[in-house]
Amino acid sequence: MTADAAILFSPFKLGDLQVKNRIVMAPLTRIRATRGTDAPNELNALYYRQRASAGLIISEASQISQQGQGYIWTPGVYSEAQVEGWRKVTDAVHEAGGLIFIQLWHVGRISHTSLQPGGAAPVAPTAIAAKTKTFIESGFVDVSEPRALELEEIAGIVADYRKAAENAKRAGFDGVEIHGANGYLIDQFLKDGVNRRTDAYGGPVENRARFALEVVDAILGVWDKARVGIRLSPVSPANDALDSAPEKIFTYLVEQLSARGLGFIHVVEGATGGPRDIAPFDFAALRKTFSGAYIANNGYTRDLAVEVLRENRADLVAFGKLFISNPDLVERLRRNAPLTAPQPETFYGGDEKGYTDYPTLEEAAE
Ligand SMILES: Cc1cc2nc3c(=O)[nH]c(=O)nc-3n(C[C@H](O)[C@H](O)[C@H](O)COP(=O)(O)O)c2cc1C
Question: Does the beta carbon of 40 lie inside 6 Å of ligand 1?
Answer without folding.
Answer: no
